[in-house]
Amino acid sequence: MNLPNKLTIIRIVLIPIFMLVLLLPLNWGSVNWAGTEIAVTQLIGAVIFAAASITDFADGQIARRQHLVSNFGKFADPLADKMLVMTAFIILVEMGKVPSWVAAIIVCRELAVTGLRLIVVENDGQVMAAAMPGKIKTFTQMFAILFLFLNNAFFANIHVAIGEILLYICLFFTVYSGCDYFYNARFIFSDSFKSDK
What is the SS3 assignment for 86-114? Predict the structure, then answer.
């Protein structure tokens, strides 16, 4: 069990803790942070999410730099990333901070691309690397989630709903990068459209 895999496991363990903090009926009051009133549970949830997101960045960097790429890492790292993001969006829907249709599109895209990657590996033997639109999607997702949990702190005084802006930017790149993945992997489905004649 190398360091990148340990970080991935830590991220998976943080997900139920993240859920419990935000979903249990805890009343720990609120704090005024950067001119914004934030429930303590939301603040703790944002810190947990940020810590988990940092492990997502760190484990990939360490694995590539130290040549510690493993089959477990290839499987668990993207799975943990998607579990964390989808959990956060579902909680934000329950909190009324994200429209359910936006979360549904994001969840459906993540499931579709995960399935596509498995088919590509099975047929081609290669893992589909994340392209730039996918990286932008991940970046904007992470920051949208953080700012939504933090009630757009730091931007409240200038009345910019940065979380909502990032949410719709990430929605665009979610759809665009998903279409891009399927277009680049279209060879996988070529036999499905061949005529029987």
Answer: HHHHHHHHHCCCCCHHHHHHHHHHHHHHH
